[in-house]
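Attaching the record inline, Q. Sequence:
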Amino acid sequence: MTERHSQVPISRWLIIAMFAALYVTWSTTYLAIHYMVLTIPPYLSSGMRFLVAGGILYAIARPRTQAPSLQNWRACFVTGALIILLGNGGIVWAQQRIPSGLTALLIATMPLWIVILNWLMFRQGRPSLIEISGTLVGFTGIAMLIGTSRITEGDAFYPLGMAVILASALSWAIGSLYSRHGNLPPSPLLSAGMQMLAGGALMLLVSLFTGEISGFSPASVSLVSFLGWAYLVVFGSLVGFVCYLTLMRACRPSRVATYAYVTPVGAVFLGWLIAGEAVTGQTLFAAAVIITAVFIIITFGPKAHN
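Structure, as predicted:
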């Protein structure tokens, strides 16, 4: 594929502001998901979240741009399926059993997948020795984290949930790279809205076929779950996702991926402070290994491969 949208002209200060917004909002979304899925089914809640946010963005951006083509919609459904349905959907499903801090740490592996996929799928150059080393260190940290979780969680240890989260990180990486090559609309806001609409619709289909909708009662939704859902609509989607998707088209993927070693720190801290999630010394050490690996890849990897 040819890279269609690798660079979108945006002012330097706006890019800095979007990076700051991305770091802050996505440090908190895992905790918001934790509370949202307490009383709202995962695919139903996330499907409605992205449909609402996507509808708002589409309504704002569409009058200012030309009508999207069928090719645009097809590309948005591909990225919506990879990033939202499989990426975010796997996260919200797994967070019914997996702590928010642990989820954020496992998702932090996304830049490791990008190094591999950039080479295998998009032929962006063979990984350098330091990238290979960083990737191996990162996956060593994952193994340590899973082993530590098995000891500290005991009967609550849920290997399937961890596997789903790692698969979500992989799908997210594929979708992120595809978003730089696919035939998306030129307007970042319209593109983000269309991807959210596509991903939200796919999530609702999953919710329908799995019986979530038929077994759901609005009266069972707690206030804290509703507030978590509303927070994700505004800050997770309208702010965080828009910044992420825009930056993926304006900056190198590895630069955008720096969120992966910033947000887990905030997520672990907030999970411990607010939700009372256990944080052990072994967990922190495994987290440090993963974040160090991501830092090595992003900082010292050849820019030509970014």
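The chain has one domain: 12-305. Residues 12-305 form one domain.

More tomorrow.
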